[in-house]
Amino acid sequence: MRGISKRVFLRSTGLIAGTAILGIRRARATEGWDVIVVGGGTAGLPTAIFAAERGAKVLLIEKSGLLGGTLDRSAGQIAAAGTKFQSAKNIQDTPEAHFEDIMRITRGTCDPALARLLVDNATATIDWLADNGYTTLPEHPVIEGEHEAFTTARYLWGPEGGRSILKVLKPQAEAAIAAGKVTALMRTGAVELMQDVKGAVIGVITEDSDGLRAEHTGKSVVLTSGGCASNPKMFEDLHGVPLYARAAYPFSQGKGIELGVAAGGYVRGGEKYLCNSGSVLADINYPSPIFGSAVTDPRRRQPWEIIVNRRGERFVREDHPSVDEREHALLKQPGMRSWVVFDQEMLDKAPPLMPALGNERMLGLFDAHPMFAKADTIEGLAKKLGITPNGLIQSVANYNDGQAKGVDIFGRKHMPLPMARAPYYAVAQQGITIISFAGLAVDNTLRVVKEDGEPVVNLYAAGEVLGAGATSGNAYTNGMLVTPALTFGRLLGSKLLPLRTA
User: Fold this and answer.
1) From CA 92, how far away is CA 110, in angstroms rounded?
2) pTM for the full model?
3) Considering only the top CATH level, what class is 6-17+35-270+435-496?
């Protein structure tokens, strides 16, 4: 898929670079900076911390009132080969093995140069966290979590998820701020990049919470402001699918993507979009809050029910051991919508489908909540769901035949009961994501690049502003968002930015 250029992006979003600042109150900042970091989250904090350690004069711009970005709600899952955590458990691992796992899980769809940059430097990042007080859950590192398994136990996270990482980063950032090495502008957004006549980025125009705009000149600007998974229009423009769930970090509005494109960069990776295996939404209006989830992952609960699409057809082996296989199967279905269908006997005998609710509370939702339905016949259930009746009738018949013979057409193994006892039930699940796969294109030194491969001079980027597809490909790859954000931020601050003070 061809990247999205400045002209196409600005036209699609209704933005015209350079016109937004007319008629706005302005103040001129007289102080120049070695590094201006736009976004104080998972990538921005290490960028600022390590640049300050090199003696740089750093300006950190943060739209919210808190440092840390998504780390206060993220699972904070990270991975690297050869870490101190592995050594403590005598786990043998190499960056090459890590790289091979990434390429296998992503089916080669991530950026191999960025994946290589990551695996060659992630160990030092995680060891730095460990040296500064970061701890993991006792059983970690592990092979897998919610996503596809590694071949070696290198996956880990702290007892407080992302907050465990934030407890390392935030004190160091605050110390640098207190020492005058970093100046933080909180509740302040970057609204435009300043460029000279040759297109080199020379600073940032900001707007504070009172609407006052200011110019800040800098030798290097680093965009670390996250993705666009809370901006429905931009998300759909870049990925070609609706933003179904309203669940991402509210400040993930894609401003860094907009700034980078306006400066001459381009967007790539939207075609790598992948939904998860399904969540129950609160209503039918998109984007919707998430109401809950049915446990359809066979690693946590073997399936008793069948799963069908809008045509009433089964489309995946419900007990397939690969979460990636199940996610890609749902991706191909109309509207990425599925229904978990079961009968009264399955409801009575199976472990709860939605443990957080329990069966008694769940029963109260049928025909009272838009994602829950029941009927006395399979045909009646299909009509309530708005799916093809003949398709659902045939799917149930085929499943029952396979269950009786012990040979399922999809190869399913766990089939404890036929579906034959009314009433019949269904729970609608929507494939969603809370991250964005599209983002700014960069080279292997994290410089934002134009479509011809030339860098936008003095402009860098790290974190989800690159898009999850850059490092995670069209998969949810273990640790391949938080780890690159931390590692690329550390690399930028410690060595990649051409600081004259270094």
Assistant:
1) 25
2) 0.92
3) alpha beta
